[in-house]
Each structure stands twice: as C-alpha cells, then as structure tokens.
C-alpha cells in the first residue's frame, strides 16, 4: 500500500468518527426541538462539554465513560456510533480504492454520496432502536438518494438509462412488508420497515437487495431468540416474549451493510 493510500485510510476512518459524533447529536436531538448547533452537554448535570471532551472515542476512553463533573455514566452509544461510522467510511475507501489511480475526482464524489447514504442509515438505526419508529423524512431521503443511484454505475462515473427491472426492485422488496403491515393492521411490522426496504431495493438492486432482506430476517430471528433466552435467565430483567416489540429497521440496515461491503449474494451461494 502506497503512502497516499495509507494517509487516505487514516483520513477516512478519523473523518468517519468525527461525523459519527455529529450523528449522535442528530439522533439524540431529532424531533426534540433542540437545535443541532447548540453545545453538547452532560444529560445528568447539564455541564457544557469543552473541545477536548468532544474528541471522538478518545474522550470517552480518557474519561472512563463518565462525566468529569457528576461522574454519571456516559452511554456506550457515543463510541459505538463513532467507531461504526469510522469503520463504514473506511470500508467505502477500501471497496473503491482502485479508483484512486483511475479517477480521484470520481472517488471523492462517490465517497461523498455513500457517506451521506450511510450517515442517514446510521441515524435511522439509532432512532429506531431508541424509539421503535423510523422517521419518514429520513427514510424518504434515503429512498430518493437510492433511486438516483440506479442511473449511475458505481465502478465508472457514467450516466445511463436503466432498464425497467432496477425501477421495480424497490417496489418488489416493499410489497411483502406492505402486505404484512396491511393485513396485521401494523401489529406484525411497521410500514417504516417497508419504506426502508424500498430504498434498499433501489440501492442494491433486486438480487442483492433481497439478499440483504433475507439476511436481516435470519439475523433478527437469531437475535430475538438469544434475547429471549438471556432475559428468561436474568430474573431481574423484564421478560421478553414473542409479543415483545423489537425494532426491525436496524437488522435491515445491518443486512444492507454486510451485503454492500462483502458483495454477499445469497442466491449465488445457494446455487
């Protein structure tokens, strides 16, 4: 790996952790009426954080996960999201690093586009985990950006008129979610998951998009069973049952991330 590649590898990761810190702010202040531009502070004592207390990951580790003033615990969400975003941004560069010597300008544009896509998905993931709902404006933005991607080839920066199938890939993946939502009156699954699947279909295409959805069901089922066993063994915790509500959006996003970065096509594996 040449020195420029090493520098860009470090840059993508560090830049990702910085953006991840901002995504934490967005997810926590979204729909609260609090401005995104206000200074961050401790939720327990209200202490305003200084610049050296806002360094992604490092500040959390240096403070041992506690507020320096009131000693209350700081949520692991902060370093988790920062590291997740840093890892995804790094993955974007590694996946398309060959473009560095072919078309650096296209690599920059493609990276920016994908960074925006995955930043939106990370906010959706956090918000759905905390509130069990997917905000419409975020999922619609993801869907529109995903629809735009079918007009371009990721490997070469070239505009093209797609065939009819890429347009249908989103609605095809949306349909089963809509039917589950419609016939259950929203009890089995939320329509927000269907809107997310719509964008996944456009972003990944039908085959890879379906692979992401199938993988999300497998992972979601495994996680649900594991959580039920854990809570049944932990008598102090509220028991988890088949009727307990578990947000599915994060599993869809996890499936998308795995399929996108590892080119995992379940149908090819099966055949």
Fold and architecture overview:
- By secondary structure, this protein is mostly helical.
- It has two domains: 95 residues, no CATH class; 138 residues, no CATH class.
- 65% of the residues lie in helices and 0% in strands.
- It is built from ten helices and no strands.
- The longest helix has 28 residues.
Supply database-style keywords.
10 helices, 271 residues, mainly alpha, single chain, 0% strand, globular, 2 domains
Helix content: 55-70%
Number of helices: 10
Q: What series of H and E elements makes up the topology? A: HHHHHHHHHH
Uncertain regions: pLDDT < 50 for 5+ in a row?
Answer: none
Number of strands: 0
Number of domains: 2
C-alpha termini separation: 35 Å
How large is the share of residues in beta strands?
A: under 5%
- Average the pLDDT over all residues and give the rounded result: 86
Report the structural category.
Answer: mainly alpha
Major sheet: none
Gyration radius, in Å: 20 Å
Dominant shape:
globular
Question: TL;DR?
Answer:
The protein is mainly α.
Explain the layout of strands and helices.
Elements: H1 3-29, H2 58-62, H3 77-95, H4 104-131, H5 136-149, H6 164-184, H7 191-204, H8 206-233, H9 249-262, H10 266-270
Helix pairs in contact: 1-3, 1-4, 3-4, 4-5, 5-7, 6-7, 6-8, 7-8, 7-9, 8-9
